[in-house]
Amino acid sequence: MGxxxxxxxxxxxxxxxxxxxxxxxxxxxxxxxxxxxxxYGFLSNRLRGLLxxxxxxxxxxxxxxxxxxxxxxxxxxYVKVDPYECILCGGRMMFSRFESGVSLYTLVLxxxxxxxxxxxxx
Length: 122
Prior knowledge:
This is Transposase IS801/IS1294 domain-containing protein. The protein has helices spanning 18-26, 48-58, 71-79, 104-117; strands spanning 2-5, 10-13.
């Protein structure tokens, strides 16, 4: 079994019997009806936003801003297609609204009507 040793910051190998491996895994499973306290104090949902910046300031730590990529950026990096580029004219489309509960047939029918309105001249 391979594992990462955090003390030496290296990957190490360890040979365990099947029963020892199961025993180590089960040691992390709490007893039935055991109440887990995960976020308490400054990590609780109610106080995290208020107290964590103060804690970082006292510890003189800087917090890196996490930038989450948008849907369009992720799709463009994976599929190499810009989802906001019009397939008819090549122009840039803007997201204006989202409709929930509309059937796929209705959406496709609407797109066909739009495609018939504007034809790309070659």
